[in-house]
Amino acid sequence: MGLKRAFARHVSHRRRSLAKSSIVALVFFILFTGITLFLINHQRTQYQRTVEQRTEKFTLENLDSLTEIMQQLMPLTERSCASSQPNITYQAAFNSGVRSFLLVKNGFAYCSSATGDMMLALKNIYPEIDPRQTRDLKLQQGTPLVPGKPAVAVWLRHPGEENTGVLATLDINLMPYLLFASRDARTPDIAIILDDRALTTFSPNLLPVSQLPNDQADRLAIPGTPMTILFYNETLTPNDIRLTLLGSLVLSLMIGILCYYMLLLRQSPERALMRGIKRNEFFIEYQPVFHTRKDAVAGLEALIRWQHPIEGRIPPDLFIPYAESEGLIVPLTRHLFRLIAEDVPRLATALPKGAKLGLNISPSHLSAPSFHQDVYELLAQLPGDYFTLVFEITERGMVEEANALAEFDWLHQQGIEIAVDDFGTGHSALIYLERFTMDYLKIDRGFVNTIGQDTVTAPVLDAVISLAKKLKMQTVAEGVETAEQLHFLQERDVNFMQGYYFSKPLSIDNFVTFCNSQQVVDYQAQKA
Ligand code: C2E
Ligand code: CA
Ligand code: CA
User: Fold this and answer.
1) Are residues 228 and 283 in the same domain?
2) How far is CA 266 from the centre of its chain?
3) Which ligand is nearest to the CA of 333?
4) From ligand 2's centre to the CA of 301, what distance in Å?
5) 291 plus 215 within the same structural domain
6) How many CB atoms neighbour CB 294 within 10 A?
7) What's the CA gap between 198 and 14, in Å, rounded?
8) Is 317 exposed, middle or buried (0-12, 13-18, 19+ CB in 10 A)?
9) Contact yes or no for 117/103 (Cβ under 8 A)
């Protein structure tokens, strides 16, 4: 979990993800709110246009059919009320919206569809109506029979006679409007204007035009009549805006959180590692290993490096244990094999045939089902038996692998040598070392460090060296940094050494240059 913690420490990752997801959420919020309000507005406007068109059509059709009926009734003005009344009563009853028909002769209403015979001057009951006009339309606060209820009076003059004609009073029923207005925000308030007065959905009485609200309203003039209808349309109500804002806020929060977790997931160490393999962020450095007595390069240890595009160099001490614990070590080691295979032709120009090529192998890889196949593939990519492969396996974990013994035998059959890495740092019982057949024992840097120091662990180094001799294993000292350490190890016949005293791990180019300037162990000559 080392890398995970290491990555978690990079708070900048989280902060960057947070900033990115906040921007995504904000953009979403703005777009969603904008588009939703635009759509609501658009839909409302279309609906209102439809209402207006239908109102116009409905009004015109009604006025036309009313005019037709009044024209049919016109000849009745020549006759007595008694003979005409059944006809006008019938027409008033069967034409919806008509409150009553009056027959007018010489300025006097003498017959009503509602009450029959009467004799009232027209100017007394409908003072606004001008009986000289061919057709006149007026709003009236009430009629003689229904005084409190506004109505529309429609006058149609007899073609030849000035003060004679038919008068209809209409109930303009705004009831559906009033009913719906409270339920459906889309139903606009309306005002029907004739001359200087208006019948509205918001007042039971007629209102002077000057008292109508100043709000923006759509005006619809009914062609061929003095009638104008105002629609107090509201495309976006405060409620629409509130609900839309709330909806987009919730959605953008959800999207922001989702985005944040997706970004974090994308940046998870596992993914970073697998992506690193795909994007070729790994490469190898080679540290020369020296033959102590010959004072010549005997081989090398390959050490993997990770150059992360954002994090920079990530030390193997962080990502190797992480890869081991997360089951990613097998793909990582396979990748290492591929990288080595790529470098091998150049390594062969630096080192002679038989040189030791040390690779670090994680103990858990030994028991992976693909282990043999992975090794076969590596061997197939290497040129013949040019290099002697040395698998360095840490003491820790090695003994936990039940099949280690069998695997070591198998590796030996493939011509691969085995080194116990980091010897002395694990908790293995020494008895295991007897049972395992291994070729090299790598003395951990920690012990080499104690040389020349008067510490409690200093004598352990001597014990380790003599143990290796008893087990007939060759010794490799790691982390040799000083001449003093070198001399100490020389005196005790440690076979190989490696450390900054000789060279740090080098890039392939530097390694080739280094080897060309050094003595190199000639294994072929040795054999001969
Ligand atoms: P290791 O196998 O013990 O590798 C030796 C480590 O000691 C390397 O560290 C090397 O750079 C460092 N070193 C060599 N000489 C000196 C010296 O004189 N002084 C000091 N202070 N250090 C020296 P590095 O490369 O950071 O690797 C650390 C560990 O990561 C390795 O320890 C090994 O366990 C693991 N590792 C590195 N490469 C691989 C790999 O390809 N596969 C696996 N499974 N593990 C690897
Ligand atoms: Ca090693
Ligand atoms: Ca080591």
Assistant:
1) no
2) 12
3) 1
4) 7
5) no
6) 13
7) 65
8) exposed
9) no
Question: In whole numbers, what is the pLDDT of the chain averaged over residues?
Answer: 87
Q: Does residue 145 carry a pLDDT above 90?
A: no
Residues 338 and 467 occupy one common structural domain: yes
Which is it for strands 417-423 and 388-394: parallel, antiparallel or unpaired? Answer: parallel
Name residues contacting ligand 1 (CB within 6 A): 287, 303-304, 315-317, 320, 336, 360, 362, 392, 421-422, 445, 478-479, 481, 498-500, 505
What is the CA angle 189-191-194, rounded to 5? Answer: 175
Query: 362: CA distance to ligand 2 center in Å?
Result: 10
Backbone angles phi, psi at 4, to 5 degrees: -60, -45
Q: Is 517 domain-assigned?
A: no
Q: Which of 320, 325, 328 to mutate to test the pocket of ligand 1 (most atoms within 8 A of CB)?
A: 320
Cα 433 to averaged position of ligand 2 atoms, centre (Å): 18
| Ligand number, closest to the Cα atom of 498 | 1
pLDDT value at residue 383: 85
Looking at per-residue confidence, does 226 or 149 come out higher? 226
The answer as to whether 252 is a domain residue is no
Q: How far is the CA of 287 from the centre of ligand 1 (A)?
A: 9
Rounded distance between C-alpha atoms, residue 307 and residue 321, angstroms: 17
In the structure, how many helices (H) and strands (E) does the chain have? 19, 20
| Same domain membership, residue 408 and residue 323 | yes
Please tell me whether residues 446 and 363 are part of one structural domain. yes
The mean pLDDT of 354-371, rounded to a whole number, is 93
Longest Cα–Cα distance of the chain, Å, equals 151
Q: Are residues 106 and 179 in the same domain?
A: yes
The ligand that comes nearest to the alpha carbon of residue 287 is: 1
Which residues does residue 100 pair with via DSSP β-bridges, in sequence order?
A: 169
Q: Do the domain assignments include residue 319?
A: yes
The overall pTM is greater than 0.70 = no
CATH number at residue 427: 3.20.20.450
20 part of a folded domain: no
* Helix-helix angle 269-278:2-9, to 10 degrees: 100
Same domain assignment for residues 323 and 194: no
Decide: helix, strand or coil at residue 237.
coil
Domain holding 296, by residue range, is: 278-503
Q: What is the mean pLDDT of residues 470-491?
A: 94
* Structural Rg of the chain based on CA atoms: 51
Atom of ligand 1 nearest to the CA of 320: 45
Three-state DSSP class for residue 378: helix
Query: How many domains is the chain partitioned into structurally?
Result: 2
